[in-house]
Amino acid sequence: MSKPLTCDVVVIGAGMVGAACALYAARAGLDVLVVDRGGVAGGTTGAGEGNILVSDKEPGPELELALLSFRLWTGLTAELGASVEYEAKGGVVVASSPGGLTALKRFADAQRAAGVVADPVAGDTLYALEPHLAPGLPGGVHYPQDSQVMPALAAAHLLRASGARLLTGHRVTDVPRGPDGAVRGVRTDRGDLHAPAVVNAAGTWGGEIAALAGVHLPVLPRRGFVLVTEPLPCRVRHKVYAADYVADVASDSAALQTSPVVEGTAAGPVLIGASRERVGFDRAFSLPAVRALAAGATRLFPFLADVRATRAYLGFRPYMPDHLPAVGPDPRVPGLYHACGHEGAGIGLSTGTGHLVAQVLTGKKPDLDLTPFSPDRFAEEAA
């Protein structure tokens, strides 16, 4: 084996969340090493759309984390904006019926009380925001805080800004612990990395890393497809989705669920989601899922019926049973920290997660109460 490397903290995972953990830990004065079995953004991050959303979160711990992350993203994009293709495009959530609009407005009222900017829009205002929407929709809610980055670029630039050492192509095979039970770093297939702290930012594979350290963390893959159209002039100005998308995100069902989510990109193609299903790590193409995405998108934007889809891609969101990530120290294993299980919100929640992890790594009181995100809240489910 090669000579062990020594650092203050090893971050497992070079996706968006791992990059944010590395950045904030390094800015807190720690010597950071990031290790990944693949390349930068090679997992869920590289298969995502780069959304930074507050619109789809109900009041509670996740929304608090989203608002903290939004504030941090605002600062980071002032530094990195052009290089990460940051777009402050805003979001529009559309109701398909008067009853749906009433429920959506009630949801937005609660969000506003929690600090979200959520502006109800009637039909005429809705079409001023998005002229190409299907006719006859009763209205929706405009969320100007919603934004987007190019996720692979963002992860790469945050890692570069961190100054952390990066080891790609190194598979973590063990998380050794000392006689006192504390972590001693990680073992990889290419050598040992010694550190008194390990951050599990392995996304969908976070449960496997936790198991290497001897603890249970029920992270499960939730497969999703995205359709990509041919390049178009700008005809979709915001991230636009149907109100039932929020319910699908919060659902516990393993079956295929789709709800239309449509957004343009700076390069021209339109991205079409969103599907969710728990099928393990099955990477097979699903024609039913893609057909449902196309049908949902054309219901929102009829012009898309005449647009060619050039490709589809898939990824696996790191699903947790209560839809909250694991963030912070693991009380079962001294020196082990978790930053995974963000499902489809990892890009948006990454900065807040990294900031909070860096705070607890350096002995500071975190800006948010980490109790709802505690990694041991599922301990009773251990086999």
What does the model show?
With 383 residues, the chain is α/β, with parallel strands linked by helices. The protein has 9 helices and 20 strands. The strands form 4 sheets. An 8-stranded mixed beta sheet has the order 6-7-5-15-16-17-14-18. A 6-stranded mixed beta sheet has the order 9-3-2-13-20-19, sandwiched between helices. Strand 2, helix 1 and strand 3 (32-36) form a beta-alpha-beta unit. The relative contact order is 0.20. The model has no long low-confidence stretch (mean pLDDT 92).
Keywords summarizing the entry:
globular, six-stranded mixed beta sheet, alpha/beta, eight-stranded mixed beta sheet, 29% helix, 9 helices, 383 residues, 20 strands
**Largest β sheet strand count, sense and barrel closure:** 8 strands, mixed
Shape designation = globular
As a percent range, the share of strand residues is 25-35%
Using the CA coordinates, give the radius of gyration: 21 Å
Mean pLDDT: 92
How far from one another are the termini? 34 Å
Structural class: alpha/beta
Number of strands: 20
Strand order of the largest sheet: 6-7-5-15-16-17-14-18
Number of helices: 9
Order of helices and strands: EEHEEHEHEHEEHEEEEEHEEHEEHEEEH
Low-confidence stretches: none
